[in-house]
């Protein structure tokens, strides 16, 4: 915001604006009395009527013609007028000297000669300033910049222009003055005198009172005085429409501007040529008649000058300054000059314009002036701009702007703007209410509440409204209303009127300031402020301590001025206003003071105050009691003064007296000749001066006759005045007693205050006796109402039962009292004129509230108060029904304290401080009120959040990074994260990852440096754990490769051993059978993907493959694994032996064979049957695959568990596993298979050799031939009779069933236990060996030769055997006889002992061979599982051919080396259409069916989530399982 310039006008504060309701607006005097306490403080106020109050404009516009006043703006302002008068005197001084005054320029601005002259005089005069060199100081005071030698310039100008004038004023002889030189500088501005002295002659008008009207005595000439040769063209100027003088530019500064011409006396107008001719005529007479008064010589008559004033003659060279030429204008001698300059100034007043305006013509002129001046439409000019421009124009000497103002137009002649009864304006029916409206200015002065209604004369402006037609800048000067009365002004229409007012108590202060600032004006015109011709800038008055207020009165608004309130203003543009005076009852004492003031100023009165009081007293019977009381008091003062004055007059010697009817005399004939007071009660006259009288105060000013000649003329005798006063007193006595009682109780002291009930009784008395509703009653009623309200509020405060109560974080009530208000309220209770019983209790409440505030301030002064302390204070505040400003602060600090405590609590438990908690705390902290502790905590929290978010994001990126970061990098990050006191999930994960990585590395290191070979389960667990750790683990890739190689090895082993769509797993195939005789097709499915759960307590039962797998996984080394497998083998052999015997027994002829259940279909044997060589069970040839051709051993589907690859194809698998150096159950089982195979080979070689030697022939490969069925009664049965011969059972009478075998089996009767065990074990081997076929052939050949031998021997034993078989078939189990056949229990015990002995020998041999083991020179090639290699494997190619040559060597088991082949080298997806994925797309799933093969997830359409949660069975296993179920149930 820009600062105003030092000389720019600053608007004063606004005065009060009142907007009454219709009820208040109904009675104007009651409303004005109501607002008087407020409006009196500003002197003026504005009243805005209700919006619907719009009276019609009733003035007769066509008849309204008026002559406005001419107002030259810079002549209105007091200080500016003083300057203009001074410049006119200087110009006149030099003009009479024959010189033209030109005002010089200094520093590009006109020199203020008045200020310069005043400053030099204040400094002691020209000589003192020169002597003490104060010119620079004077230049600084005048506003010039220092350091430019301005002081010397100012001195020269003063010396040549002002110094001669000051010497002349001081009375010094001009003959002693050195000749001045008035240079004609081009920069100097020629000064045109305003001729105020010739235009200031004013006189009162004939029609109005002298105090209100002035008229110019003389009109100004048609053209201003100019030098010869200067043109006098009358060029109008738009900014000076009213004929004002313009500030001239360089080109036109010497061109005068005309003013409005008025009729002038032709006799007074003398041209310059006539004056020159007259002056030449005066030089014609004889020389002796004209001599120079200076030198006394009459010589040089051509240089003699005649004075135009006195006809004295002077030589031009004798004058000071001497004149070079004869002056062309008037010339005055020094004597006449002194006479002219010593003439007193006449009173200043406005002159009337020459033109008579109609309202329309004046409006057109006014609008044109304003629009041309501001160069914009009149309605667009801001009021602020007009205001500042007005005060600038009235304060400048350089610009002369003249306007016209139609003021003080009598409404009686042209009609009021308001409608009146009997007027010419015809009213509409809806507007008739305005005729009797109190706000109609024609009604207000004569209404009953106005005392002016008792004045019978029509006083213009007081009882009759005056009209005002204004234009832009037209003004009304500082004044107060006559008799200090009220005034009211209504603006009917037009542009606003700007008002300035000062309160009545500052009237004398304003007068003193104006007299101080413009003493010259008051010296010549003491009653200047009563002439309405002088204004002064409100800023100047305010700077001297005078309170000034302003307002803009718009159309339809009232402005009310109060008694003795000075007011002034100006019009913003063309408008029409109406004003009138009125006097209320409270004005009566002020009216008498005004008369005394007027007497001191010798100012005339508009009416006689004593006359008005006496006329009011004459109507005492029907007088208002309030007015009667006021009049009685005023009459008492009047009678006392009159009595004293009459006594003084009598003491002075006045004897004669007579009654005088002053009522019948006009005011002009009964005015005191001294003080101009209108006399009414008495006056003094003298016979020497008829028609002249004086008041009793100025008896000495009547004449010079003796006092005894004076006559006292009185209106009433004192004896007549007292009855009048008593009559008024009786009317007001009852009211006065009541009023006195009211005043007593209202002014009672604290200890004598009355109760509220007594106040109420007084109000009831006033209503009962119909006392007037005056100020006293209103004051009593108001105080009583206040006391009642205070008592009610006090009781509510004490009861705490205030309505609209609500709690907000500690409790607060709407419309509560503040503590200061409560304190003021308590003070108000004690200041009430009546006593309130609740006051002491409220004071106690106030004391407690103040104590609460003190404690609150103490708590709030702490940097971080405890929440409990604040809450305690808030709890205490619930007892106060007071609005405590500390409560919101306490609530805010309570929230802050809770928040800070929560922050501290969260900071004390960093493990629980999460990012969400920090954000939540920050969000809560943002809503808190600012406080250093909160800001500090917020800063720390924000910093912690920033750091935490940074590390949380960084930890997340470190965890999610691909490839993973090294352990060192993450450990360094964890070390930095450890210093952050917060719970960061990603950082916790990072810490846990680093911890798990370290533990994992320790486990891997312990595994590497341990003495034992790692188990696959351990490696798989390590790999799974390592993959789950987001850390770059260097051993992980090696472990993954190792596990992959093991998995590839398992897949290769499975392809080698397992049959197509085999329901068995690799471990089931390689391990000895644990479930012999339990139904081979019902087994527990094993999920290879899930690691075997290890238990601390070793399981001793080996009843299933899962138990065996668990035992192998829990074994510490291969030896314990081999022992476990050996134990399972023993159980297998025992179970199989029992199964074979049972199956053999059930196939013997028997009476109940029809109920026998055989085969996979579990039905009775019938037709062609196949007998399994291993389990010895019979199967229908239609239910199982056909028998092998040649001498191949036929095994049933349950016993044929694998493809039984040759040993040379199995040994490379063991060698590869040993190179991998990982233990797994399948590996231990494979090792045991090979050991078992090698051991069997050694035993088989020995037995085969012994059998061949015993038989003595090469084994023949032929089938057993079937023979014809035996006869029913044949008791001889050859030993080699086939089981398939047709048999009949006639003994039981049951249906007979006949079946025969297509495949011959080796009979068990001819085998020794070792041979049977050897053969059974050969059939249990999952490896195909040539020795097995060789053994089979030898056994077949040996048994055939034995049968042939038995044919020649007696048939007794054979028959017995046959009978035994027949008996067995009938349900009796054959037992071994004593001729070499052992019982089953004995045979089993012997077999177990032999097996344990052979196992101990094998273990010793293996340990010895491992010591001698060495790595082969040629490593095993990797199996490339691409399409070609896969075909090669499936076509029967045999990898590791170098090791096949050593297959028959038992030492091969320990001669294997470690291999680094990876899983990916042998991993082939068996899907039909493998998509061959790469990189991250490679994810595997294992079939949970019988094949246990691994497939790419993408190739079989399985997601990773589905592979983890559900079992996957490939297409082949699904089809084969369905066929198997059909096969078993069919």
What does this structure look like?
With 1530 residues, this protein is of the alpha+beta class. The protein is 43% helix and 9% strand. A hairpin with a 7-residue loop joins strand 37 and strand 38. The protein is elongated. Mean pLDDT is 74; it is low at 173-181, 196-287, 801-813, 1079-1099, 1257-1296, 1351-1392 and 1409-1466.
- Characterize the overall form: elongated
Number of helices: 47
Q: Which assembly state applies to the chains in this document? A: single chain
Report the span from N to C terminus: 109 Å
* Helix content range: 40-55%
**What's the average pLDDT?**
74
> Structural class of the secondary structure composition?
alpha+beta
| Proportion in β-strands | 5-15%
Lateral arrangement of strands in the main beta sheet? 1-2-21-18-23-16-15-4-13
Rounded to the nearest angstrom, the radius of gyration is 71 Å
Largest sheet: 9 strands, mixed
List keywords for this structure.
1530 residues, alpha+beta, four-stranded antiparallel β-sheet
How are the elements arranged and paired?
Layout: E1 17-18, H1 22-25, H2 28-39, E2 44-47, E3 65-66, E4 69-72, H3 73-76, H4 78-96, E5 102-103, E6 105-106, E7 109-110, H5 113-122, H6 126-132, H7 135-141, H8 150-170, E8 189-190, H9 196-199, E9 202-203, E10 215-216, H10 272-281, E11 304-306, E12 313-315, H11 334-341, E13 351-352, E14 357-358, H12 359-374, H13 383-393, E15 402-410, H14 411-414, E16 466-470, E17 475-479, E18 486-494, E19 497-501, H15 507-517, H16 519-524, H17 538-543, E20 549-553, E21 558-561, E22 567-571, E23 575-582, H18 588-601, H19 609-617, H20 625-652, E24 656-659, E25 682-685, E26 693-694, E27 711-714, H21 718-746, E28 754-755, H22 756-768, H23 775-799, E29 805-806, E30 812-813, E31 817-818, H24 819-831, E32 834-835, H25 839-861, H26 867-877, E33 882-883, H27 886-908, H28 915-926, H29 932-960, H30 967-977, H31 985-1009, H32 1016-1028, H33 1034-1057, H34 1066-1070, H35 1105-1114, H36 1118-1146, E34 1167-1171, E35 1178-1180, H37 1207-1220, H38 1225-1255, E36 1299-1301, H39 1313-1324, H40 1330-1352, H41 1356-1369, H42 1384-1411, H43 1427-1434, H44 1441-1444, ...
Parallel strand pairs: 1-2, 24-27, 28-32, 31-33, 34-36
Antiparallel strand pairs: 2-21, 3-14, 4-13, 4-15, 5-8, 6-7, 9-10, 11-12, 15-16, 16-23, 17-22, 18-21, 18-23, 19-20, 19-22, 25-26, 25-27, 29-30, 34-35, 37-38
Helix pairs in contact: 7-8, 19-20, 20-21, 22-23, 23-25, 24-25, 25-26, 25-27, 26-27, 27-28, 27-29, 28-29, 29-31, 30-31, 32-33, 33-37, 35-36, 36-38, 36-42, 37-38, 38-39, 38-40
